[in-house]
Fold:
Amino acid sequence: MIPKLKKSFILTIFGASGDLAKIKIFPALYTLARQGRFPQNYFIVGFARSEKTQDEFRKEVEKSIQEYTNENVKPSVLKELLSHVHYFSGQYNELKSFQEYRTFLKSLSKKEMSHIAYFSVPPVVFHPIITNLSKSRKNKNEDIRLVIEKPFGHDYKSAEALFHYVSEHFGEEQFYLLDHYLGKSSVQSILNMRRSNRILSNIIRGSEIANIQITALEEVGVQHRIGYFEHVGIVRDMIQSHLLQIFALTTMTIPNKLSSESLKREKNNVIEAIDCPAEDDNVVLGQYKSYRSQEGVKKTSTTETFAAVRMFIDKENWYKVPIYIRTGKKLHEKHTYISIELKKFPFQDEKEQPNRIIIEFHPEPRINIELVNLQEGVSRYQSITTADSIACNIDGCLPEHGSLLLDVLDGKRLHFLSFSEILSAWRVVDEMKMLMKERCSKLYRYEDGSEGPKEQHRLPRMDGFEWYDLH
Structure:
């Protein structure tokens, strides 16, 4: 039985005309509706600046669902969902618009219900929306939940300023800070498998591990995100958020009692302890050759589209265990995975292949366990690999935005970030950026469709390892 939400709600999507709403949010809402997750009484309202009628907006929602939903759309489900969809035109920086919006909501329903405000807007308008939501509410006890997606600032200082600003208007428990990677069932499986299997729990610890590699490669370039990416780069876009979260889930101490507070605490403990030693050249940056020829990019752009980083965890049980991260655009394949290489016994031959645990997220979510076996008759070692899917392929599986939206509607906070994690991650990235600046890190140009700059290989070789390429 797929559980159904019991409480009525209003979901307001600020920026309902944007790509995030069209590509991710509306299709996710359709999937939730198809699974019968919604209560009988609910309202989905698009709030945007452009003038349009209810029918025009519903047609936009219908088009995005038809185009971006990864399943056959059932007309009856779509029709029922659209009957709950409404539109309001207003200005984000005008209190009057928000007061008029409150009147609009009363015209939909006299009943008090939870109000979820989804920020599908650029960060530049976070402040006015937060301010006007605060000023237009009835009282501080009103059930308003604010869903904000990354980026949360562009460095430690701006993220801290955002935290202080939102804290002036709402309690931290009212904010759902969303990193869509944490909604992926394969990423959630890192924690779930470690908590459920003593084998993995006992093996994935610093005393047993030689090195960890986190790889996230993409075939496509920056595409329509040029305006954003040119000011951010791949270190801030991928490493600060998605990949440091994977880092934390892989290496954190498993709490006895799983709650949002205990999970955030343990993740933050790891992120706070990350060290990227300044005495070594621990960062390799690259840029694909066609990047500067794209519209909106300066011919002298130094924005990195590839980064490889060597890091450590400043904890006794992770002493001298290197952790490597690499990520890039316009590469030879799209592939995201973790390789956990286990230590060898002192008596083992150095040339002998190590044992590994590999967790893949894309293209096929699965876990691989690679073992080594000696065939005595021929005096040769044989690699044994066992693999199985960790994809969610049963009734009730949801895309990442669907999973996280459902959690917000249900008041669950397990798979959302805390400001403490975000600030700790920015500290790591700011120190990394400072290291890059002080050492005048070179930007290596690489061919489109290649494996990235060859200089990336010097990072694992500093510790006697090689990148593990999983094909």
In short: The mean pLDDT is 93. The domain at 182-461 is CATH 3.30.360.10 (Dihydrodipicolinate Reductase; domain 2).
